[in-house]
Amino acid sequence: MGAHLLNTAAEGGPSVSWWRDGTDEVDFVLHAGAAVVGIEVKSAFSAPPRGLTAFRSRFPRARTLVVGAGSGAVPLEAFLSHPASEWLA
To answer: Is the pLDDT of residue 11 over 80?
Structure first.
C-alpha cells in the first residue's frame, strides 16, 4: 500500500505520510493543499477504525477511507488500480 502511494504520487502531487496521536493512528495520510485523506488498511472490520474516528475528529474537513475487506471498504484491487492523486478528489 505505501509503495503504491509513494510510486503513484507524482512529483508536485500529493505527499504521503502517517498520523499518530497517543494510541490513535492512521496508516497513511495523503495531502495536497487543503485536501487531506486519512487511509486505514484493514483485512476485516465492521465499524470505523478508532484511529480514523480520532483523525476525523481532529481534522473535520479530511476525508477518510478504509481499504480492505468489510462493509464500506474500498477493495484492495480497486485501490491499487488508481494513483494516489485520485483519492484526493
So the answer is: no
| Residues whose CB falls within 8 Å of the CB of residue 79, separated by 6 or more in sequence, listed in order | 1, 4, 67, 87
Quick one: fold of 2-84? Trna Endonuclease; Chain: A, domain 1 (3.40.1350)
Please write down the HEC assignment for all residues of 11-66.
CCCCEEEEEEECCEEEEEEEEECCEEEEEEEECCCCCCCHHHHHHHHHCCCCEEEE
Q: Quick check: 18 pLDDT over 90?
A: yes
Q: Spell out the domain ranges in the chain.
A: 2-84
- Cell numbers at 32, concatenated: 495536497
How far is it, in rounded angstroms, from Cα 58 to Cα 23?
14
DSSP conformational letter for 75:
P
Give the SS3 label for residue 89.
Answer: coil
Q: Phi and psi for 79 in degrees, rounded to 5?
A: -60, -45
pTM as predicted: 0.91
